[in-house]
């Protein structure tokens, strides 16, 4: 692992996946502030394009706390500067897509392209979350319990947060086999880091994002993703003028459940 010094002096951890001569793409994980090992190697995408993965503030490997995803967009600028890049392709997953959209709104000249993987979108699109309908169609008691936890009371402490995280795990996948269960346990998170991620965000952040000039944008989603829903993501992709690739039989982590299709979609996008 390597380190990049942010504008406020914080040492941000980064690591590289793959090699090659082409300028790297920067990756922003989700969680928020989940241990980045949950990304694994992104279905081997590093063989197609070198990836530099930012370990956001609040992750176990960078530490500290987020200043809020809107402000932490500056950390992508710091990483790009350390790499000597005037423009970058930016890939983000889940909660990390908020930070990526903040980069696009606040630093529009930095991005040559933007890829948003399973972005939570009801906050941006204004379309109601349809996870309840998806859960009902699954007809799985584990999924029903996960959805009940997701829509229940917010956890008050780390112990309650961890119990909720464990019970909600099946909602992140289109299936719940040993493969998904093993992946669900990878990458630590904390309640304090999650709360910090959402602080000090401008009330008009969504409006500013939608009003800003954007680079060419790709959205990759799963038709079985209860965490984002389906309708809000489709609406957000349309509002952003993005190309949408919706993977069938896929939840919130497409490199786990649909690795071949996921890699093909991202590799094709990055080659353009």
TrEMBL record:
Transmembrane segments: none annotated. SUPFAM superfamilies: alpha/beta-Hydrolases. It holds the Pfam family Abhydrolase_6. Residues 26-264 form the AB hydrolase-1 domain. One of its GO terms (molecular function) is catalytic activity. Signal peptide: none annotated. InterPro entries: AB_hydrolase, AB_hydrolase_1, AB_hydrolase_fold. This is Pimeloyl-ACP methyl ester carboxylesterase.
């Amino acid at each position: 692992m390597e380190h990049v010094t942010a504008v406020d002096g914080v040492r941000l951890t980064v690591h590289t996946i793959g090699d090659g001569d082409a300028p790297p793409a920067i990756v922003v994980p989700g969680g928020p502030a989940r241990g980045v090992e949950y990304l694994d190697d992104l279905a081997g995408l590093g063989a197609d394009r070198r990836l530099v993965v930012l370990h956001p503030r609040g992750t176990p490997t960078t530490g500290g706390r987020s200043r809020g995803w809107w402000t932490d967009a500056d950390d992508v600028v710091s990483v790009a500067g350390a790499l000597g890049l005037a423009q970058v392709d930016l890939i983000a997953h889940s909660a990390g897509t908020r930070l990526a959209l903040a980069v696009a709104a606040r630093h529009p000249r930095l991005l040559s392209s933007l890829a948003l993987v399973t972005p939570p979108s009801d906050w941006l699109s204004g379309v109601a979350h349809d996870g309840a309908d998806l859960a009902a169609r699954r007809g799985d008691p584990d999924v029903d319990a996960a959805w009940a936890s997701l829509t229940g009371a917010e956890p008050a402490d780390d112990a309650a947060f961890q119990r909720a995280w464990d019970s909600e795990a099946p909602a992140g996948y289109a299936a719940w086999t040993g493969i998904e269960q093993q992946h669900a346990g990878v990458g630590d998170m904390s309640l304090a880091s999650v709360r910090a991620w959402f602080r000090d965000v401008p009330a008009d952040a969504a409006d500013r994002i939608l009003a800003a000039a954007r680079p060419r944008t790709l959205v990759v989603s799963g038709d079985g993703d209860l965490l984002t829903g389906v309708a809000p993501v489709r609406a957000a992709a349309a509002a952003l003028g993005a190309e949408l690739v919706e993977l069938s039989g896929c939840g919130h982590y497409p490199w786990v459940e649909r690795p071949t299709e996921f890699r093909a979609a991202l590799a094709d996008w990055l080659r353009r």
